[in-house]
Amino acid sequence: MRYLRPFFLLFFGLLALVAAVNAVMDPYDLLGTPRFARINDRKSVGDSRFVKPLQVSARQPGTVFLGTSRVQWGLDPEDLPEPGAYNLGIPMANIGEIAGYARHVMDDTTAHRLVIGLDFTSFNDNAEPLPGFRTAIVGRHALLRAAPDLLLSLRSLLRSRKTLSESRNPKEFLQRADGFGAYDGDHSAKTPEEAVINSIRFYVASPAFFRGYAGSNRSLAVLDALLTETQSRGMAVEAFIPPGHVAVMEVLRRIGLGPAYDDWQRRLVRICAAHGVTLWDFEGYNRYTTTPLAQVYDTHFDGTHFKPNLGRLVLRSLLAGRPAEADFGVRLTPDSLEAYLAGQRLARDRWQADNAGDLSRILAAVQTENHAVGAATW
Question: Which residues contact 243 (CB under 8 A, 6 or more apart)?
């Protein structure tokens, strides 16, 4: 057995070296290791489904933002008056994932408030959680259970190498320590109009979004169960429908999903009201979601992702309990919803009449995707 001793010494020595490198580089920004310029000061966190639950456990914020990339890129924790918020927005998260992260926050942090962005496309019963969610470490003592992966895995070692590379050649940040992300979407768009059109085409063609939409019964039940739990555990919840550009809403209705959207919104309002959760709608036809396509960069990155200047107004409205600016954001209740929907139909008619050029460009650009979703003639 003596001949095995050098082997074990080498093996455990290599493990110790890997752990030391990962601890010093701290690529996921979790260990609090001192930062050194051009060595480890630009973190490379990688998969947000793995990293963000661990970061929220490490940060122990008072308020947590939940939702998709719209939340990740649109809501800045620094826009809250009190410090200590964390943005747990995850690209393409469905409501099952969002509920899982919410339970993680309740199980492993002392947070007292959740701000949840609710997207229609997150409630597609045909969508399954992405693989990263299945391997995410969530629940109590997440950091302790993740320690072997953080210190000893090849994944962490590769992220450490990436951290060194990015520290030596810094670029614009992609994710801050509080989870807020810089837009990293469509780099191919040369004009605002092209950015909107590209995002619409993606939504229309994607099986995860419009093309594969299969109702929302199961997904709404997931939300109902989550809000039952947050209510029983005394967690404050604020919910809102994010302000995408009306170009996406126009296409959604043109391909035949308008009734499904209205049904989803009605049921969403009833569920939130039953649990005492305030629900805001910022996605309707209003002063900011109807920005002309040529000027869309004033308010949006593309057709679906709103900019932090709109996110600031969203947060101000949620905190104040009233719209931060006129004609942007409405509190929805079962009693007011039908009148609101009727008003939205009139607002849509006005927008179509006043923006015939934008409308024709939107419809012409996505005409080729029509058959992919099995929609009626435009």
Answer: 282, 283, 286, 288, 289, 299, 306, 310, 314, 328
In a domain, 13, yes or no: no
Sheet containing 236-241, strands listed edge to edge, beginning at the edge strand earlier in sequence: 85-89, 63-67, 113-117, 236-241, 278-281, 330-332
**Domain that residue 353 falls in:** 63-139+170-373
- Is 9 part of a structural domain of the chain? no
Q: What angle do CA 205, 73, 293 make, to 5 degrees?
A: 60
- What is the helix (H) or strand (E) element at residue 330, kind and residue range? strand 330-332
Neighbours of 122 (CB within 10 A): 24
326: tokens are 């006129």
CA gap 28, 129 in Å, rounded: 22
d(Cα 24, Cα 14) in Å, to the nearest integer?
Answer: 15
Predicted confidence band at 373 (pLDDT cuts at 50, 70, 90)? Answer: very low
Q: Output the six-digit token pair for 316.
A: 């101000």
255 burial via Cβ count (<10 Å: 0-12, 13-18, 19+): buried
Residue 151 lies in a domain: no
Distance set, CA 72 to CA 54, 65, 77 (Å) = 16, 8, 10
Record the tokens describing residue 26, joined without a space.
């701290």
The answer to whether 57 and 184 have CB atoms below 8 angstroms apart is no
The full DSSP string for 213-258 is ---SHHHHHHHHHHHHHHHHTT-EEEEEE----HHHHHHHHHTT-H
C-alpha to C-alpha distance for 205 and 212, rounded to whole angstroms: 9
| CATH number, domain containing residue 277 | 3.40.50.1110
3-state SS assignment for residue 91: coil
Q: Does residue 146 fall inside a structural domain? A: no
- Band of the pLDDT at 1, cuts 50, 70, 90? low
Weakest mean pLDDT among 87-91, 202-206, 319-323, 342-346: 202-206
How many domains, in total, are found in the chain?
1
Q: pLDDT at residue 39 above 50? A: yes
Rounded to two decimals, what is the model's pTM? 0.94
pLDDT for 372 equals 46
Per-residue model confidence as pLDDT tens digits over 212-252? 899 999 999 999 999 999 999 999 999 999 999 999 999 99
